[in-house]
Here is the input.
Amino acid sequence: MKKKNNQADLFMAFFRAGIFGFGGGPASITLVHKEVVKTYKWMNDEEFSDVLALGNAMPGPIATKMAGYIGYRVGGIAGLLNAIAATIIPTVAAMILLLTTLNAYRDVGWVNGMSQAVIPVVGVMLGVLTWDFIKKSSSALGWLITGVLLAASLLLLEWLGVHPAILIASILAYALLFGHKGKARRKRRGETL
Amino acid sequence: MIYWEIFLAFFIPGILGYGGGPASIPLVENEVVNRYEWMTTQEFSEVLALGNSLPGPIATKMAGYIGYAEGGWLGAGVALFATVAPSLILMVALLSLLLKYKDSPRVKKMSSLVRPTIAVLLGVMTWGFFADSIEASGGIQTAVLAIISFILMEKMKVHPALVIAGALIYGAVFLGG
Here is the structure.
């Protein structure tokens, strides 16, 4: 592939993955995979799944981490910015346009009805996502530990009013310090990652 | 300083949201509704609902719109930067290092231990959406919409965008009065 076409290809790849990906970033990853591995062959399947696995081990939105990293590999810093812009700008612009228009007609009855009817649908989507997270953690940790962690998180967040950021940061610190089970624990304590 | 607040409101969910953008939405809600009080829960859920009806990553759509609503185009830019940049810089800087540790139990434990907490955050938010909906449209409308959309999306695999479009039409016709 000629180098000068790379930036245009990058833009098209992430533009398509962004505007056809309904259901948030994680849902668009299959589209990113199709563009990156099948259409433009910037990576093979194995590289892609390694990058995805590590992207998932890091915080933040997955779509922009993937776009930025792949853009960087294909086209340097310009590629990074290009892929990020293609991923976010079209849909953010659509969002601002739609919502400012709707806000202008907020007091019209049928517009109000529209925003009421859509709330339970999003409730269902979030409920499904919640269940998905519970299933994934039980397959990684088992039902018992998952249940204990769920109950403890609920207690801390809802009844004791702990800020979610503090709770999450503590769990991450715990995993980083004590996440290596077994014999090596004592020997490696105090060592930095 | 509104831009600094916007930065912080999206920086914290960006660096703590494990499991991609949707998992960080409850954290965004916590900052936007509870801490800075830029929106009520009702307003936030409307923005989220419409955000879900459009394609593309949800975290950046929320950041872009809320940033715009609070601080104009510069606010949108600041919110997007705060959402995207920290985790992306980590990714680019650490990926080659992390590729070596990809089977490390610590790296795996980090995402698996944090998942139940994210599930609770999402579950509480789900509950909040249904409670809002019952208040706004009544229990029967809420149950009907929830059950129908669940069957369509999960059992019949209808595209979420179509289900949301259907709900918008239903709401315009039956809930407008």
